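Appendix B. Raw example, untouched.
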Amino acid sequence: MKTICVPLLAAICMAPAWAQPSLTLADALERARQSNPELRALALEAAAVDAAGEQAALLPNPSLEYLKEGRASEGGSSAIQLSIPLEPGGKRAARMAVARAASRTAALELAIGRARLEADVAAAYHQAWLAQQQVALAAQVSETGRHSSDAAARRVLTGKVSPVEEARARVAEANWRIEGVTAQRELDEARIRLAGLLGKADGELGMLAAPASPEEAALPAAQVEQLASAAPAVEKAVAEVEAGEASVRLERAQRIPDIALIVGVKREGPGRERVRQNIIGLSLPLPLFNRNQGAILAAERRADKARAELEATRQRVRLEAMQAHARLQAALQQERLVREEVLPGARYAAEAAMKGFEAGKFNYVEVLDAQRTWAQAQGQHLRAISDFYRAKADLAKLVGVTDIKDLK
């Protein structure tokens, strides 16, 4: 894997052995999958829906009845009968179809939750890593400012420049130290957010490894559209349409009343004269008023709603995916331009201005301007990388893939 290690981050890439990365993005994602409570809740809900599906497949229980009329010595009777309910009209099959659709919807909810969690972890990881780079960059710029102020102080002692130059250098150095404090605060906040997603303490994270270079993330727009059409949110909307259609079939099957088959034995008469008679019969409700018409109409309207929501979801996911892809491509272009054209020139100008100042050819205002341009260029490069990672996380969340590399 290619990592980001351009000249502006040379000090970071040459870190001492004790500061080598101890947490990678893959490690962070695995920790989140194992410890995130929201993901565990979705998994438990999916298991509960599967259990409900098992219940839907069961046959209804029969009923055992015992009837007694009067005393046997006086000619009374007693009967034992078994009532076996029957479900005509394919009710059981329709009920099982509804349960299967619900299980698929719950499984897709889990997939969406996992994709959302992984995208959030990736975004938090990238934010923390970039904040880590900002801290190192601030330290590098502060060191450059200290070197410049020391050079200005030496030239003041020799009488070659006004003390005003030294004052300007000290002020610039102090401002860069302030930026270092701000960068450290942002790093602390980013690490706390990442640790919260992983269920870990901030101190357990260690240094963060550099993620993949933006150069490895080229993705054609046609492939983005293909991935968007099969996104988890779209698949979930499709499953909800199937669940709605299964519900309509179930409600239509409910129009046919259940039949109860009755079998049993009846004894009547006094003493030894008791007569045994077999019982067989049917129990059938008469659908005179309630033919389940309201429930059928409600199920049909909900199925129509699910179809409309499917179309809306397809349009929304495609639009958001293409927007994220456009932001990702723009960030890639900006990062490449800054890295290849802006950074080399800004660095050369800063180094040349400093050498010229030490040789007495430039005043400190020119040095300060060149150093500020150099620092801004480095910050611009990090912002472009940040925009890229943010767009990448948004796209991954939509299409349900953790890393853009996995899409190829």
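End of appendix B.
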